[in-house]
Amino acid sequence: MIFRQLFDRESCTFTYLLGDPATGEAALVDPVREHVGRDLMLVEQLGLHLAAVLETHVHADHVTGAGELRRRAGARCYVPRLGGAPCADVPIDDGDLVRVGAIALRVLATPGHTGGCVSYLVADGGRPADRVLTGDALLVRGCGRTDFQEGDAGRLWDSIHAKLFTLPGETLVYPAHDYKGMTVSSIGEEQRHNPRLGGACSKQEFLELMASLGLPPPARIAEALPANRACGEDR
């Protein structure tokens, strides 16, 4: 499997490219509209063709490149059914399997940051899954905020502990954002060292912490939400 982690500095968003060198099929997860040209150039340089664009949720801090990638490359757009994006070619639900060549992405419903978040458990060529793309649910030593878009701290705690922390400890964690220079973790690391969710932290302590954050709204939320419900095709 070809696997690349790409970055948008403005929103601190990670985009992931997954490609099957045998079939040439590729997928992009959580693309950013300003980097569509970069992403397509990389796909071409690696000898791949873009078959799928997947979202972990409807984002509030950047505009997705999904619609433009669909138009320019013919890729199909996969968006969580509960995310509120009728633009999707394929609405996805918990347990669904998206195949890109020999790569299988299993959909795990992980709501809480928003009401329609998913993670993608990635396996290659029939081998056991070795990584999970966690969107804004589980970050490296943190988690997504829960104060807009049907966010719910209790649901986020339950999602992470029931769906993610039950994965093997060696499973690599690739989040949709990082603000501190971290690029990858593992389930075991987050169980031990995540200051909000791991170790001896209780659910009640987590709820109290999330209620006290007092964060300002994402800077681009007024633009991003309506645009992303249309797969970024607002122009």
Compact overview of the structure:
This protein is α/β, with parallel strands linked by helices and 235 residues long. It has helices at residues 36-45, 66-73, 153-164, 187-193, 203-211, 221-229; strands at 2-8, 13-19, 25-29, 49-54, 76-80, 90-92, 97-100, 103-109, 118-124, 131-135, 138-139, 142-143, 172-175, 185-186. The protein starts with a strand and ends in a 6-residue tail after the last helix.
Q: What is the CATH architecture annotation?
A: 4-Layer Sandwich
- Tell me how many strands there are: 14
In percent, how much strand structure appears in the residues? 25-35%
Main sheet: strands, sense, barrel: 6 strands, mixed
The stretches of 5 or more residues where confidence is low (pLDDT under 50) are: none
Secondary-structure element series: EEEHEHEEEEEEEEHEEHHH
Strand order of the largest sheet: 1-2-3-4-5-6
The CATH topology annotation reads as Metallo-beta-lactamase, Chain A
Number of domains: 1
Q: Report the CATH superfamily.
A: Ribonuclease Z/Hydroxyacylglutathione hydrolase-like
Q: Report how far the terminal alpha carbons are from each other.
A: 35 Å
Q: Given this structure, which CATH class is correct?
A: Alpha Beta
Q: Determine the fraction of residues in helical runs and give it as a percent range.
A: 10-25%
Q: Tell me, briefly, the overall form.
A: globular
Number of helices: 6
**Coarse structural class:** alpha/beta
Rounded radius of gyration (Å): 17 Å
Instruction: Return the average pLDDT rounded to an integer.
Output: 96
